[in-house]
Amino acid sequence: MSFKLFNSLDKAIIDDEMSAPRASRTPAVWPSEASAIRVDRTSFPVVGTCARKVIYRMIGWLKKIDPSAAGSWKWIIGKAIENKVTDLAKYQSVDAGIVEIYVAHGVRLFIAELYLPLEIDVVVKDPDTNRGYVLEVKSYAGYVPEKQIERDRRPKEENLLQICLYLMETRTGKHLKELIAASLQERAALDTAGRTHRNRCEANLEALAKMDDGPIGCKLVYINRDTAARTEMDIEIFEDADGFHYPMVDGTPYKIFTIESIYDRFRMEQNYWFRMRQEAADRLEKKGIKPPPTVQLVLNRGDASSSYTEERKLTPEEKVAEDKYYKLLEDEVRSLPEEFFPPPEYEWSYSPERINELAAAGVISKTKMKAYQAKTKKGEPVRLGDWQCSYCQYAKMGCIAKQKPDLAYLQYDFSQLGDDDDVKLGE
Fold first, then answer.
1. Beta bridge partners of 221
2. What does the pLDDT look like over 24-50, one tens digit per residue?
3. Disulfide check for 236: which of 19, 248, 256, 278 has CB 3.0–4.6 Å away?
4. What domain range includes position 320?
5. How much helix, strand and coil, in percent to the nearest 5, is found in the chain?
6. pLDDT digits (tens, 9 = 90+) for 202-261
7. Domain for residue 53, yes or no?
8. DSSP assignment, residue 119?
9. What stretches of 226-344 adopt beta strand conformation (E)?
10. pTM of the entire predicted model
């Protein structure tokens, strides 16, 4: 048998990129988990990440083990594209008339009230006006995103949610300069202290000083991994007469969700976490298990165990005692009854009534509906459901048995249920 290179490389990339579930000791949320309530809830109530998925990640719930290396390769390719965009922004050539537009990259900021860390991919400036632009770089492949992004010029909603956070938290060149300076200062302090950290912020200080202090521009930058098609969308935020803020894409109002809802959703998810954490701590105390004196539990908004820029000094015995207590606390959280968890906001498998409702609304295409009806008529296993559930590492280990008790016995054999029958809005 001939040597198969990717038999080794695929195993390596899965092991290298796959992280084991780990409970968070603060209610930290990620910008990639952003979500919002839809303005029009006719077909779907939310846009973005399911609140239950966020909670599962925060409490270290068991993930489904994915044997496919494709996701890891896509992430690596996407990161390489982002790095190349950063390098090209620094490129200059007098002979070719190319002016450097790079200002900074890897800019970190922290919304303390939400325990929310943000990192801006790249900051550039218009060489003619010196106006600064925040860039969020994304890659994609396939017919559906190609049609959505290139032909219809509609951003992926999850990308729009994320970049709206960056735009809301920067607003002006003056404020962005302050954020970049703080991020550089934090990195220097961490480097000097010899700390392991993820702050990769760098900046061209001369270009930064020249950047205009006025309103910041913002672009979603898309690159097709199949065809190398490049698409950029200008993102703005406007306040409507109702007093709420909405995204604007290439000058067109995009009233799918309010910006305020993004922040409200993060708070709601964290409120679940606080409630679960407090309940678990109370249950442990009733068993006679109290936190060690060095433990600073985060049980209310504003609590902090320690600044992430500070290194706590613990004896080996204190560290062992802390780790032991946290293990008991986290196990207690995961064992809480269902009423402590937010309900699933997407459906892995629709009911027949839901399928007919979405078909009538045009959400499920006629082609997909015909295929579903044909399989059903033949008595073949078939599933139609939200695409978010098929990409969720927690759905099959947590939600499916709760949503579809009749399918609980199939939790470890999903191949027969048709994982490719997912419904995407606007498909």
1. 137, 232
2. 999 999 999 999 999 999 999 999 999
3. 248
4. 272-337
5. 45, 15, 40
6. 999 999 999 999 999 999 999 999 999 999 999 999 999 999 999 999 999 999 999 999
7. no
8. E
9. 230-239, 245-249, 252-253
10. 0.90
